[in-house]
Amino acid sequence: MKQTGKFKGIMPPAVTVFDSDGEIDAGKTKKFLQYLIDSGVHGLFMAGSTGEYSLMTMDQRRQIMDVGVEGAAGRVPVFVGTGHNSTRIAVELTKYAERAGADGVVVSLPHYPRPTQEALYLHYKALAEAVDIPVYAYSWPGQYVIDIDPETVARLARDGYIHGIKDSTQDVDHTAQIIRLTRGKIVVLEGFETKVLPALSLGADGAICTIANMLPKEVVAIYDLFRQGKIAEAREKQLSIFGLAGVLSAREDMQLLKEGLKMMGFDVGDAQMPTSPVSPELKGRMREELKKLGKLS
Length: 297
Description:
By secondary structure, the chain is of the alpha/beta class. It has a single domain, classed as Aldolase class I (TIM Barrel, Alpha-Beta Barrel), CATH 3.20.20. The chain is built from 13 helices and 8 strands. It has an 8-stranded parallel sheet with strand order 1-8-7-6-5-4-3-2. β7, α8 and β8 form a beta-alpha-beta unit. The longest helix is centred in the N-terminal third of the chain and has 15 residues.
């Protein structure tokens, strides 16, 4: 596995825009990526959970990789999601990502059938040996009911099979253990918007968080202020997004996020099924939080 420059910063897991037939709207997706780049993000993550990768066909998963690379046009690094329960299919997707020009892959844990820690190690080993771009693990036990032990992460890092990890665990101690055990060998990215500053203070390198689609400048500011040593200002910026983060946490599908983006004027369409309409009450809460943040008049 090729060891490229260490990624640092904020990398939004970009939404994917679908048309009414459920096909990827490349033009509208690229237009949204332009907004994120113009807002100062440090990279893009395509085909993550926020990008609805798990609801895509295999052709769509390959297509969204191409859309992301073309949309970024070399201005920021582009990482793509290539996770799959099958190691063989994950390898195929990862090889395609390399051919498409992605700067790295972020690979969600295989979760069904539930693998052992040794199986997780062998899964990422197979991916790393198949390509020459960085492989990042992606842990989200709240969604997939499986986790990767910090010790397994450290073993993969020591053996050179992963270049980083997106750690979406509610317990910040888990992230801290990974940082402690890997000691700078890999990139550690926080997965929750409410924990960006705490993770940075522990030594994380940045974040991949859903709210950065709606508030890219604000999340980038948390990172930049921290790096500048302006901790009080970073804390205030972190606290300022808690209200909106709390609303977003009410739904784990992407329909609520897309409703909020549409309120802000972005033509991002609807989430893919299975999903359901967002209640008027939840839309009202979203609207109020966006008003507080100055995003709506």
